[in-house]
Amino acid sequence: MRILGIIPSRYASTRFHAKPLVMIKDKSMIQRVYEQVKKSSLLTHTVVATDHPDIFEHVNSFGGHVCMTHQHHVSGTDRCYEAMTLQDEKYDYVINIQGDEPFIKPDQIDLLATRLDGKVEIATLVKALQKREDLFNPNLVKAVFSSKMEALYFSRSPIPHIRNVDESKWLEKHTFFKHIGMYAYRSDILAQLTNLPVSLLERAESLEQLRWLENGYKILIAETTTETLGIDTPDDLERAIAYMERSDQFNQ
Hints:
This protein is of the alpha/beta class. The chain has helices at about 30-35, 55-60, 75-85, 105-115, 130-135, 170-175, 185-195, 200-205, 210-215, 235-245, and strands spanning about 5-10, 25, 25-30, 45-50, 65-70, 95, 120-130, 140-145, 150-155, 175-185, 220-225.
């Protein structure tokens, strides 16, 4: 199975301008993401897909593979499709890896890759929630899935609703899952997704994956036990630096 890992890296951000180029100690965020992704044992090739020459030149400077994509893309999925079409070789699947998670674990990528058998259309990751504040945080997307590990719905609200139980006890009564925003797409499916119009549920929740579900695509779920640490704001960056200072992994 030939799998292309793509790291979408957009320059403009309303909450954190030029985020991919911010330094996390001695390396930029995009370099840290790239180096972690390259440790995956199941990716055939890895490339950064960017819309800005500064990011393009920076990735080149540390020896990374990078391609320039259009600025008008509204989602990482659309950027991944263009990046896939720019490659010299063909791939069975594309894995879209978040460009703002500098400590992503290669085994998470490999876990998703092991689920790809040629029949799977789309696959993604979830992790069990542990904290009440995360359960009710609309910035953390929740997921529910079937006994066949196929996604039923994603929401910014806690799902399911636990009837006749105080919200403070919900985590004691049920296992809730948060969505980890890494996607694997079969190459032909990725081409189809980019042609779908914005759907009603997607517009309501501002979640692109609901468009796919509304149009009948199946999303396979894999469960990870590894925590992620995304950087969306300058405050997140400070927490990431503090994490590095506490971690033996980065102090050897």
